[in-house]
Amino acid sequence: MRHIVIISSSVRIKRNSHRVALYFKKYIEDHQLATVEILDLNSYQFPIFNERLRLQVNPSLQVLEFAKKIIAASGVIIVTPEYNGGYPAALKNVIDLLYNEWHRKPIAISTVSAGSFGGSQVITSLQFTLWKIQAWTVPAMFPVPNVQDAFDENGNPTDKTGTDKRAEGFIKELIWCIEANEKMNTLV
């Protein structure tokens, strides 16, 4: 059975992007598309890393657990808010912590903002960072403008029909990439 990890990237107080992570978890489970778990960076509260995991002398158990979850994932959804045209430092921190763990990992990106652009400015910088470490960024996006109005605190969308329709295409593309990646891995 495929397993999808959702990274909820914001560590801010009163964050709204976590609502989208909750939505994806429910959507995937309700449609029985995969097993799924949320890796909430707010729960981890990682320090700023001064070295990649593979070069750390005594990595914490929490760091090792996070790395194992990324390795075990068939694919990843990153839900990230846009902060001044970029993505959160907490997300950059964990991306840079790992390297081989991201290699050819299918990663779908959902960008979120409180404004009308849905985090569209963050996608380029995040994709570039993921490409540099040889992750496989899925060619579908899920931007969420006005997130505070689009989802409640429990991840329920205000327009369930429209949101589910967009999610269907987004998740379908991620699953296609996961399946293609699995086929490639059996050939290698």
Question: Which terms summarize this structure?
Answer:
188 residues, alpha/beta, Rossmann fold, 5-stranded parallel sheet, 7 helices, 5 strands, 17% strand
Task: Write up what this structure looks like.
By secondary structure, the chain is α/β, with parallel strands linked by helices. The protein has helices spanning 18-30, 41-44, 61-72, 89-97, 122-132, 147-150, 160-187, and strands spanning 3-8, 35-40, 75-81, 106-112, 136-141. The protein has one domain (3-187): Flavodoxin domain (Rossmann fold, 3-Layer(aba) Sandwich). The protein is 43% helix and 17% strand. A five-stranded parallel β-sheet has the order 2-1-3-4-5, with helices on both faces. Helix 1 (18-30) links the parallel strand 1 (3-8) and strand 2.
CA-based shape: globular
Distance between the termini: 21 Å
Order of helices and strands: EHEHHEHEHEHH
Determine the number of helices (DSSP H or I, runs of at least 4 residues): 7
Report the average pLDDT across residues: 94
* Contiguous uncertain segments of 5+ residues: none
Biggest beta sheet summary? 5 strands, parallel
Could you give me the name of the CATH homologous superfamily? Flavodoxin domain
Strand content: 15-25%
Assigned CATH architecture = 3-Layer(aba) Sandwich
Please tell me how large the radius of gyration is.
16 Å
Query: Strands of the biggest beta sheet: in what spatial order?
Result: 2-1-3-4-5
CATH third-level topology = Rossmann fold
Helix content: 40-55%
How many domains make up the coordinates? Answer: 1
The overall strand count is 5
Class by SSE composition: alpha/beta
What is the top-level CATH class?
A: Alpha Beta
